[in-house]
Each structure stands twice: as structure tokens, then as C-alpha cells.
Amino acid sequence: MTESFRRSGEYENHENPYQGAPQHASAPVNPEWPPPPAYRPAAPQPVGAQPVEPGAGWGSPAQSGGARDTAAAGDGNGGGTALLTPVAAEPAPVPPRRRATRGPMALLAAVAIVAAAIGGGTAYGIQELTGKDQVVASSTTTSVVPASKSGDVASIAAAVSPSVVEINATLSGGSSTGSGVIITSDGEILTNNHVIAGASSIKVSTSDGKEYTAKVVGTDSKKDLALIKLENASGLRTATLGNSDGVKVGDTVVAIGSPEGLTGTVTSGIVSALDRDVTVSTDESQGQQQQQQGGGWPFEFGGRQFNGDTGSSTTTYKALQTDASLNPGNSGGALIDANGDIIGINSAMYSAADATSSTAGSVGLGFAIPVNTVKADLATLRAGGSDS
Length: 388
Known about the structure:
This protein has 388 residues and is α+β, with helices and mostly antiparallel strands. It is built from 9 helices and 14 strands. A hairpin with a 4-residue loop joins strand 1 (164-170) and strand 2.
């Protein structure tokens, strides 16, 4: 009994340790191993051959004459192969690392979505509190009022009014009142040339009641534009210059200015027409005389003259027409679109200076210089203007 046990064990005999049924039960095959290749059984190894360890693999040809082939020849009927067949049929488990990889990625995606939602909500909250849009995704993309407030006159007025000023110019024989638009925080202001033409001194009042002295930087009488600069100013609220090429007839517009010295007056209407050929005077004395009489700047349209004689020295430009109420003092003020962007500088309006109380008031005939014309002329104005 003992010698028989030693011959079938791990000492002298060195026969196949897997021969017979008991061995495959005591040394189970790892279920994760792939099934062995179907090699033709080989002759048994001679006595003295090195036994195959129970944990050895089946995949290399060098092992083809070892335990697998010996087991196959053990009973003469290919019993070794029959024993391995059900093990190979067991399904391989799904590697857990796939689920681990998917989990963090899905978590990161969810975190990104939540962060984006929170970021958008925060930006909107800031818009609602401040009345100004934050820059999102692109540094060139801004909006003066939130998208939800587009076209709301109250929101537009609240956002843009601090950027519109009243201008009082002292002339040789009187004074002139108009409006202007702040374009830099240190006090560059756009206005009409006819508002400050011939002025010996210029005073500017901001929406918060502060007063500044201003100097002329440059003028362009052919476009009826001027650029002035406040002295000792900083931290001013600037307007956003929009794109007048995108304006359409029927678009909502808001006008802000100081008609008859009524600072910060807001009116609204629509764009009535585009590319109106408006002719204005470039004669400084002509404009001064009309301003002193309390009427609007004289202009010509369709062969007819309004607010007085334009004289012999004139210039013509393409204008936006609006039915928003404009009156003397609105000149140089802002014409604003539904998003709060400046699309024009108000420059001419019909004013019935001799009207009676029953016929007085705006007749809905106003004109503005397109802001793209203004932007194209800005470098010239900063360099002293075309009239220098």
C-alpha cells in the first residue's frame, strides 16, 4: 500500500500526477485559464522526466508532451481531454476594470454637466442683479441687458442712462444744450459737431449729478460728429457701440438725452426707415443762431428744409429714421437697440419752433447717424478730426 502510494505520488516514480480521476479533483484547473489547444496526444514521457507543476499553464508547445498529453493517454481513451472540456465551457467573468473605468468617466461627465448648469445660473443671477451680462465662452461676446430683458424699455434705460450726459456749451452770443455718449471710463464723449461748434467753454453733467469741464478733442463737420474729453474723470460707465448694419425697419429703439435741458429723458419707438439722405449745415454761425433761438439744428430732407435755413455750406449723410420722440437737446444723445447697444447718435429732428400750444410736441420725425459711421470716424476724431 505504501509503495503503491509512493509510486503514484511525488517521489521516485515520477508518473503523471494527474493520471486517473482523483487528481483533477485535488488540483482544480483555474477557471480563468483559456482552454488548451487541441494538440494530438503524444507518447508518454520516459521515467525520469520532470513532472509538470499543478499550476503550470497549457499555452506553450514545450508543454505539449507533459501533463496534458500524459493525461490524455492515461486511460487509452483520451480521458484527459474529456476532463478539461467542461472547464473550458465555463464563461469567463467580465473584467471588473471595465466597470471601474466607466464609473469615473460617467461621474466626471455628470460633474461637468452640473458645473455648467450652475455656472449658467450664476451668470444669469449676476445679470439680474447688475443689469449687465457677463462675458460667456468668448471675450468678444457681450450684452448690455440680459436676454430675458431684451426690448424692455425700463431695463434698457437703467443700463444705458448712466452712459448718457448733458452738454452745455457757452457760445459767443449765447449757449447751446445737447447730449453726449460716454465711450471710455476716463471721459471720452461722442456728440454732434453742431452741439459744441464755436464753444468757448463746455460743461458736462453726468446722470449722477456730477459736473465736469470738457475740452474738444476733434470735430468732423461733414459727418456732424465731435469727440470731447472730460477733465479729471475716471470710473465712468461706458456705453456699448453696437452694429447699425443689422438694424431693420420696425426694430424697437430707445432714445436717451436732455431735450430742453431735461436731463436723462427716455423715449421709445421703432426704426421708421433706413438710409435716409439727411442734409445738415456745416456753417458754424448758422447752427449757433438756430440754437440760440431754441429751435433744432436745421436740416434738409426730400428737397425741404426743417428748423430753419441750412445755408449754402451743407453736408449729406445716410441716417436712421425713428419715430421715437426727439426734441431740441436730444442732439448727440443715444439711439439704442433692444439689447442696450448704441446703434446711432441722434442728430436731427423736426421742431416746430413757432407751434402753438395745440400743435406743440414731437411729430415722430427724427434722424440718427448710424453707429458704424461713428466707429469708422473715431480714429480721425481722436487725431483732431477732419476739420483740424
